[in-house]
Amino acid sequence: MKSLYIGLMSGTSADGVDAVLAEISMPFQFRVLDTFATPYPEHFRKHLLELALSEQVSKQALGETGFYLAGYFSTAARHLIKQNKLQAAQITAIGSHGHTIDHAPNSQTPYTTQIGNHARVAELTGITCIADFRSRDIAAGGQGAPLVPAFHQWIFQSAPAHSAIVNIGGISNITVLNQQNKACAGYDCGPGNCLLDSWHQQHTDEPFDSEGLSALQGNLLPNLLAKMVADPYFVKPAPKSTGREYFNMTWLQHYLKKCPETADWKSISRTLTELTARCIISEAVRHKCRHLFLCGGGVHNTLLRERLTSLAEAEGIQTALTSELGLSGDWVEASAFAWLAHQTVNKLTGNLPAVTGAIGDRILGAVYPA
């Protein structure tokens, strides 16, 4: 039986909402029917980034921000419904990532916080909304992230042997697909666009370095790169997950102080680009990958894509986009949350314990009925 779902994604970059309308049927049929991306106003984007980096957040700020996020989420969902001449009753459920404000799976009291006022989304759309997917995995002793590798494993079964999926958003993560009876591996490699974007914003009026043009004008700083690559996170064994709570401007300033030599800001951008590329490729080499399929906003950074391709080729690894496997890289994560909603509705598990470290398979998500 075919069912319709909407997946919503608001990622670490806080640039907007990605929405996917998908048709899903078992066992392995997934079809994207339509997509829609709506950017956040710049003032709201800055507000989301400030919330994520603040040590203390007021109850009012959390409540109000969740209220406004629900408006953006609902508008995206309603656009897809109207565009495809559907009725709300025809959509089985919305799967919403929400927006991550804090993620602390390794604290003495593990928790994760994704806001979005999902009850309001259900109210505004008239559609069941499923959200807060990470919390159940954390309750079961897992990292709560990344969750998308379960979808990668399900959707990309046509990938050749020794393949991995690499998503480059604010944080980069890798999924080594389950092949030859080995468990699927997946975890956050480290920074994707988050450091690059924040550094660029400090020196320009632009939210990101379009195509890596500014970084291209800089020079690689080997000493700075060596110190950053030696950060404890990169040698920490999986399962592991991270976010802006770790990789942020405070983190970068710590390493800049260790390298007091004068460097122009574009050379630091160039070195941050190299950091992202090398951290991804080092993990691909660790798992003896021969094919990398890329997705996420980072693939649009021309310099980053070139560095990934060059470093991969030097290791005998071929790179391509997930579109070659049938799903555009711009819509993989939003599609994953449509699929996760489908799993929850059908009482199917959505996590991979081998990836998150949870003690077992769990049905994920909190359900807000229509």
TrEMBL record:
Pfam family, any one: AnmK
Keywords assigned by UniProt, alphabetized: ATP-binding, Carbohydrate metabolism, Kinase, Nucleotide-binding, Transferase
InterPro entries: Anhydro_N_Ac-Mur_kinase (IPR005338), ATPase_NBD (IPR043129)
SUPFAM superfamilies given in the database record: Actin-like ATPase domain
Molecular function in Gene Ontology: ATP binding; kinase activity; phosphotransferase activity, alcohol group as acceptor
Pathway: Amino-sugar metabolism; 1,6-anhydro-N-acetylmuramate degradation; Cell wall biogenesis; peptidoglycan recycling
Biological processes, Gene Ontology terms: 1,6-anhydro-N-acetyl-beta-muramic acid catabolic process; amino sugar metabolic process; peptidoglycan turnover
Reactions this protein catalyses: 1,6-anhydro-N-acetyl-beta-muramate + ATP + H2O = N-acetyl-D-muramate 6-phosphate + ADP + H(+)
Assigned EC number: 2.7.1.170
Binding, ATP: 11-18
Recorded superkingdom: Bacteria
Known function: Catalyzes the specific phosphorylation of 1,6-anhydro-N-acetylmuramic acid (anhMurNAc) with the simultaneous cleavage of the 1,6-anhydro ring, generating MurNAc-6-P. Is required for the utilization of anhMurNAc either imported from the medium or derived from its own cell wall murein, and thus plays a role in cell wall recycling.
Family: Belongs to the anhydro-N-acetylmuramic acid kinase family.
Name used for this protein in its record: Anhydro-N-acetylmuramic acid kinase
Lineage summary: Bacteria, Pseudomonadati, Pseudomonadota, Gammaproteobacteria, Oceanospirillales
